[in-house]
């Protein structure tokens, strides 16, 4: 299954795993501990990894949409000879671009002291920008919202508008008794386009609450909201954001017949290997028991025919 879309999906999967392994436990600890537990290095590294992963996700989805656009709207432009190499290079560029955009997050994130006005309590936590000035938080949150959400989703929407128009035209232009091979090819492209569209929809729904909270917080940066409603909404938004990195494999399994077939095949192969290993160990135990039984019988026969038994008879 090493084709162009699946190479992109492998990159997407790696970004999801990176986010879940490094950022989800750290994010959970923020709601369980009173202060930041991971030091200054962790404060710079974790936001950097998280933003890199978000960038990889949304830019890979944009690249996947562009690939589906070429496959459906301009199929004659596809060059299959060196496609895997070009896609690997494109995926590498996406990672490099995401890392570059996340560098300011590592530079400006630091441990900062916040105070709760109602109780005059103070706490230290990791924040992405300094206290001084109200412009920095607003620019940071708005730039993140535009670069990692609005602009990519707008580009994807344009691609899918052209894809939908092309599919509608091809459905009208195709004769009733058309070439079965062409029909299957179009249906396959439709299914893959739907899969990518579902991925995009999941990303848009899962990350929108986090962006909304981030925008709201940046415009009220010096105030700490301690209400239960804000807490519940924040935790729900974070869980939803991390859920996006978990649902893609399930969505792919449900939507893609080829992926479902290959996954079942690999799963069955693993199960068969386990069964074979179990049967082999049983056979080995059975052969060992048979060998032991034969050696016992031979020993008994030698005792019957040999001296020890004769001596016993004499006794």
From TrEMBL:
Cross-referenced Pfam families, in alphabetical order?
7tm_1
- Keywords tagged on the record: Cell membrane, Disulfide bond, G-protein coupled receptor, Glycoprotein, Lipoprotein, Membrane, Palmitate, Phosphoprotein, Receptor, Signal, Transducer, Transmembrane, Transmembrane helix
Q: Name one GO cellular component term.
A: plasma membrane
* Bilayer topology annotation: Multi-pass membrane protein
Matching entries from Gene3D superfamilies are given as:
Rhodopsin 7-helix transmembrane proteins
Signal peptide location: 1-28
Q: For this UniProt entry, which segments traverse the membrane?
A: 44-66, 87-108, 139-162, 192-215, 235-255
Which residue intervals define the domain G-protein coupled receptors family 1 profile in the entry?
Answer: 1-252
Subcellular location(s) of the protein = Cell membrane
Q: What is its main location?
A: membrane
Any one Gene Ontology MF annotation carried by this entry is:
neuropeptide receptor activity
Its protein name is Gastrin-releasing peptide receptor
